[in-house]
């Protein structure tokens, strides 16, 4: 009885494990799922996020620079002959000081603005990285669907050739056709088998790439079986708005602002710096207190430090001029980038238009090839055309079908590329 119950238990858990594996293998991955996983797991995006955290930590450090800071110090001293005549043989001191910068030529406030702008720059960098990763994810997603469709096409094409080969072998055995008619189809069938193997290998590689992009640990996922047919041109957007939405422009603008703030800091280096320090100390040593001869001494002192740059052979002045030239260079780079992005947007839109036309043309060609294949197959069955004619019709049909698959995948990829170009 116990053995029977144990066997039932084993069968139950084996069944559960099989169901779990089946569910895991049948998991359907949508494009939005892939993007969400990439946002959470992609290493490039994680790296960009860490860069922002580093910039925020630097910002916090800069914001603390105008606060009073406290230093504690302790020293132990042993002196030998003849210094022990002037100082105690053993001496220990401890001090505590507070320093406050009073004036630094606006360097601190400028540095605060720089640190905040640096955070903005790295935030735009993360945004750019995210968009690039999303484009790569979407491109890979449509490539997977493309190659998956190619696998199905190769299987259909192989089935057509196999059926034709069977008919031709029967005709050859009956002495109706020559052997070269059979060999021609066999060669094409071998090529179809090779194409099927290549498509399956390509699908596996693309799934591995998707797993790397999204952080998945395996390739046990499925995507939708077919390409969507809603091939519609996106409305063209204003270039100025599109360019303003691009993180590349935001990054260069932040870089220009940082260079301008750096100019102000260099200007501030030519101004006085004022700092106040107040320190208290305690010393212990044999008769160290000169007022009463005791072994303890407690006192304090205050320092006002004023540093005024007077003459450096024009070094600081030349650094300011150098920085101004860097600012001008950054501004020219911004203008150049805006022009390049304008061309990129125009080009992306033209390519998108062309891909729509290509989908339309290839679909018409497929309809014609399909009709041609049907007519040739009917005539072959009626004995009015040869197997060579059917084979040529099948090859044309396979090529037309393949071009439709490629055209639809290219449209989806070009659509994503245009959306990235306009900052969406």
Give the topology.
Layout: H1 2-25, H2 31-41, H3 43-63, E1 69-78, E2 90-103, H4 107-173, H5 179-214, H6 239-244, H7 247-268, E3 273-285, E4 296-307, H8 315-382, H9 387-421
Antiparallel strand pairs: 1-2, 2-3, 3-4
In short:
The protein has 424 residues and is α+β, with helices and mostly antiparallel strands. It folds into two domains: 27-63 and 104-271 and 313-421, Outer membrane efflux proteins (OEP) (Up-down Bundle), CATH 1.20.1600.10; 66-103 and 272-308, Outer membrane efflux proteins (OEP) (Single Sheet), CATH 2.20.200. The protein is built from nine helices and four strands, in the order H-H-H-E-E-H-H-H-H-E-E-H-H.
Give a description of the structure.
The chain has 424 residues and is α+β, with helices and mostly antiparallel strands. It folds into two domains: 27-63 and 104-271 and 313-421, Outer membrane efflux proteins (OEP), CATH 1.20.1600; 66-103 and 272-308, Outer membrane efflux proteins (OEP), CATH 2.20.200. The protein is built from nine helices and four strands, in the order H-H-H-E-E-H-H-H-H-E-E-H-H. Strands 1-2-3-4 form a four-stranded antiparallel β-sheet, with no helix packed on it. The longest helix is centred in the last third of the chain and has 68 residues, at 315-382. The protein is elongated, with a radius of gyration of 39 Å. The two termini are 67 Å apart. The relative contact order is 0.12. Mean pLDDT is 88; it is low at 1-13 and 18-24.
């Amino acid at each position: 009885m116990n053995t029977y119950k144990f066997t039932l238990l084993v069968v139950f858990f084996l069944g559960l494990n099989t169901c779990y594996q089946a569910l895991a293998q049948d998991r359907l991955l949508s494009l939005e799922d892939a993007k969400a996983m990439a946002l959470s797991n992609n290493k490039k995006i994680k790296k960009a996020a860490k860069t922002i955290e580093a910039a925020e930590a630097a910002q916090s450090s800069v914001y603390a620079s105008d606060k009073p800071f406290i230093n504690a110090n302790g020293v132990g001293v042993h002196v030998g002959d003849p210094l022990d005549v002037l100082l105690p043989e053993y001496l220990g001191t401890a001090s505590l000081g507070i320093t406050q910068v009073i004036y630094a030529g606006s360097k601190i406030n400028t540095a605060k603005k720089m640190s905040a702008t640096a955070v903005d720059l790295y935030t735009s960098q993360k945004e750019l990285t995210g968009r690039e990763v999303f484009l790569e994810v979407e491109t890979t997603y449509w490539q997977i669907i493309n190659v998956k469709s190619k696998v199905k096409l190769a299987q259909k094409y192989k089935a057509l050739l196999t059926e034709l080969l069977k008919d031709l072998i029967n005709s050859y055995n009956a002495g109706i056709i020559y052997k070269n008619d059979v060999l021609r189809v066999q060669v094409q069938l071998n090529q179809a088998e090779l194409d099927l193997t290549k498509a399956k290998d390509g699908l596996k590689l693309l799934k591995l790439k998707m797993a790397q992009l999204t952080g998945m640990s395996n390739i046990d996922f499925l995507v939708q079986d077919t390409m969507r047919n809603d091939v519609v041109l996106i409305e063209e957007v204003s270039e100025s708005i599109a360019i303003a939405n691009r993180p590349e422009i935001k990054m260069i603008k932040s870089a220009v602002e940082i260079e301008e703030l750096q100019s102000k800091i260099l200007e501030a280096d030519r101004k006085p710096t004022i700092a106040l320090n107040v320190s208290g100390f305690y010393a212990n040593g044999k008769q160290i207190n000169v007022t009463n001869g005791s072994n303890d001494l407690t006192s304090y002192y205050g320092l006002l430090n004023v540093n005024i740059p007077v003459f450096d052979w024009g070094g600081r002045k030349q650094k300011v001029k150098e920085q101004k030239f860097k600012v001008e260079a950054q501004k020219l780079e911004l203008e150049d980038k805006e022009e390049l992005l304008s061309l990129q947007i125009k080009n992306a839109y033209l390519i998108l238009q062309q891909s729509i036309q290509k989908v339309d043309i290839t679909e018409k060609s497929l309809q014609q090839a399909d009709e041609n294949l049907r007519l040739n197959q009917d005539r072959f069955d009626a004995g009015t055309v040869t197997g060579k004619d059917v084979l040529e019709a099948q090859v044309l049909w396979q090529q037309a079908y393949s071009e439709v698959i490629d055209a639809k995948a290219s449209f989806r990829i070009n659509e994503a590329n245009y959306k990235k170009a306009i900052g969406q």
